[in-house]
Amino acid sequence: MTNLFHYFSLIKLVMMSDLPTADIHFVKLTTSWIIMMISVAGICFLVSELTRNYSQVDKLWSLMPVLYSLRTLASYQSPRLLIMCILVMIWGFRLSFNFYRKGGYNIIPWKGEEDYRWKIMRQNPKLKGRFRFGLFNLIFISFYQNLLILLFSSPLLLVAKYNTSGLSLLDIAAALLMLLFIITESIADNQQDRFQKQKRYIRQQDRLFTHSLNNGFLSEGLWRFVRHPNFISEQIIWISFYLFGVAASGKWINWTLTGSFLLVLLFLGSTEFTEHISSSKYPGYSAYKKEVPKFFPRIFR
Fold first, then answer.
1. Mean pLDDT, the chain, as a whole number?
2. Domain assignment of residue 88, yes or no
3. How many domains does the chain have?
4. pTM (predicted TM-score)
């Protein structure tokens, strides 16, 4: 516990580094972020261990950045923070809706569909057993993922630090990029949702994804150009979000880059795991991997 306290004290010091002047409001803001994150991580751990549903953080993934943005905007009012808050709310609503239609939310908060990957990971020999998976849940699922959400939301804090700096062309570029890839991710998720419904209910009247239905996995629409259009869109959304901090501070490389960098690493690992599952389930997936790039479409074929 002492080590954990020192760790978050270090995060707080980094957040408050190079402040133009001592700002008690900023100290309170960063402290509230950290308290919020630790509290939510602890609740996620306890609820997931009691219910054996390990998608508690998944339920909050689209909500926590909204809470961080609203908390920040309540302390510092600036046009840039308002734009960031609106964009995060649009992103959060869209992602929450997508999670809802997959059965992730329930009227009883701790219920709802669990991500199929957690079920598979529980069968991993290295994680099998209540104690080992519980430790994995504590360190990675509950605490690390909540820390990651805090970190990729942290450009809000950098903008709060430099809240007097005016808007620039970089802000416009960041906002347009975020909107573009929120739309792209929406299209990809809608196509995946429609495909899964066709697959589940065998809707013969809707033949939009005939080839994909024969293969068992989606390879049409945006998925014809890249294997994971939703994953790459999500990564670019938060890389674009980082640019707001650059615009505010004038520093192209700053500590908030940690969040988007770690998010990219998470998606790389998650993609490998997801593709390993798909390759074992669908004979044609290996050929699909050879023909279609993972994240970035081929310009010249």
1. 89
2. yes
3. 1
4. 0.89
